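re: ur question from the group chat, yeah i did fold both. here u go
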Amino acid sequence: MWQLKDRGLIVASDDKDKSKKPGGKRQEGIEVLERQKTDTPKLFRVILHNDDYTTQEFVTYVLQAFFRKDNTEARQIMLKAHMTGKAIVAVYTRDVAESKVQQVMDYARKNESPLLMTVEPET
């Protein structure tokens, strides 16, 4: 049933199903919808892998240009990859992480560098 309310507002009302306010009072014409809960997106790590051919300067430049790292942080990440074989560069949602890695890989190939970065889920 449709009811005409003050100031020309029309509100749907169902006489059979009237919801109650917490105080025991009835509400007429108001349908309460539950909000759907959304999950936070899963995060993914961008991993820099060490190789014996890419120069340290090139890796540092890439970290500064594509990941907005300052010179000190870029060198620390590069040295960690150099010493341990790989280093975490950044953590993003999947789409952003894959996009960043693709940009870096395209840039490295244009500059004839075998630089390797991968994406893996964060645990």
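okk and heres the other one u asked abt
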Amino acid sequence: MKFTAEINIMPQKEILDPQGKAVKLGLHNLGIDNVADVRIGKHITMELEAESEAAAQAMVETACSKLLANMIMEDYSFALKAH
């Protein structure tokens, strides 16, 4: 079976996000003042083949926890879609 994984990786809440703070300041400079916080992360789309949804989920978990996300500073979430 073919699957598409939509993966979101974000800095943990406790970690400072200087890029997000710069964007928030830029928004303020544009007159957009109602923004409480901005966090910048990564969005990854991965297409893969697996025997089952559980096998695909295990592959994506491994990819995220061992390669794509820095588990000390980032959290991840993903959604799988079968084709």
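fwiw on the second one: The chain has one domain: 2-82. The mean pLDDT is 97. idk if thats what u expected
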